[in-house]
Amino acid sequence: MLSRRDRDGFAIIKVCFKPEYKFNLDDLASFDKEQQQARFLQSLEDLIVSATDGKGFDDSSFNEALLLKEIDALASKPKLAY
After folding, report:
1. What does the pLDDT look like over 17-30, one tens digit per residue?
2. Contact at 8 Å (CB) between 48 and 68?
3. Fewest Cβ atoms nearer than 10 Å: which of 9, 40, 46, 73?
4. Where are the domains of the chain?
């Protein structure tokens, strides 16, 4: 806050507020695309492994219903703010 007097002696007060943003600008500036892509691929691999009962991706062992159940379970978890 800055204050001063004008020529007539009246107080002039100037208030400066730090801008508040919806998102954390430091986190957005430090976003690493490769790290997030690696995290996404690891999550996708975990989903496939759990949907195929630990056998990995194979057309004969793929269970679409189980995969959709795992995706719904992940979607219901609280999201982290980036």
Report:
1. 888 888 888 888 88
2. no
3. 9
4. 23-82
